[in-house]
Amino acid sequence: MQYHFYSSFMYIDLIRGILGYKMNNLMNNRAVLTCLRQGIKLTRSHSELSAYAVRDRIVVGNRDVVGPGYNGTPSYIDRTDFPMPAIRFRANTPDVLALREKEKGDWKKLSIDEKKALYRASFCLTFAEMEAPTGEWKSIIGISLFLSSLAVWYYMFCKLYVYPPLPVSFDEERRLAQLDRILALEMNPITGISSKK
């Protein structure tokens, strides 16, 4: 037993050394050591377990805890990758409890509506409902087109009212006159446009 106690402290010192914790405060040392010791412990006392049970019972209310849950907490989440939630979807009512007693017998005696009621008491959505398309793409495309139209209107506003007009040298006849002048002066005659008379 003393060897186990010694090895757990060696383990704690090893972790502190690897992670490079430099704690000057005694309170921080105690807090870290307490956390690491509790991580090494494999069992909890009965009082700790009952405290967890009371806390979790308050959270789930009158619903049955049927499994460990996605991350160990008693919560209901519809997920396709983790199809069994920790608690049932609906609270226990007298009708559901009567159906659960009937469920313990032969399932062939249950009607389709009773089977659906049992399923809906345990789960909110079916797999088909979880994987059904949401239609979110319509709003995404609508918002994208709206923002694009705003950008076009902003461009038109800037072109008409913000930017100054282009210089006269950008007119078509001025550009043709400039081309005629380039040809007349034989600019860049070897490879340019003046070489193609």
From TrEMBL:
Domain of life per record: Eukaryota
GO BP: mitochondrial electron transport, cytochrome c to oxygen
Record's subcellular location: Mitochondrion inner membrane
Predominant place of localization: mitochondrion
Keywords, sorted A to Z: Membrane, Mitochondrion, Mitochondrion inner membrane, Oxidoreductase, Transit peptide, Transmembrane, Transmembrane helix
Pathway in which the depicted protein is active: Energy metabolism; oxidative phosphorylation
GO molecular function annotations of the record: oxidoreductase activity
Membrane-topology descriptor: Single-pass membrane protein
One GO CC annotation: mitochondrial inner membrane
Assembly and oligomerization: Component of the cytochrome c oxidase (complex IV, CIV), a multisubunit enzyme composed of 14 subunits.
Protein's job: Component of the cytochrome c oxidase, the last enzyme in the mitochondrial electron transport chain which drives oxidative phosphorylation.
Entry's family note: Belongs to the cytochrome c oxidase IV family.
PANTHER family: CYTOCHROME C OXIDASE SUBUNIT 4, CYTOCHROME C OXIDASE SUBUNIT IV
Name under which the protein is recorded: Cytochrome c oxidase subunit 4
Species in which this protein is naturally found: Odynerus spinipes
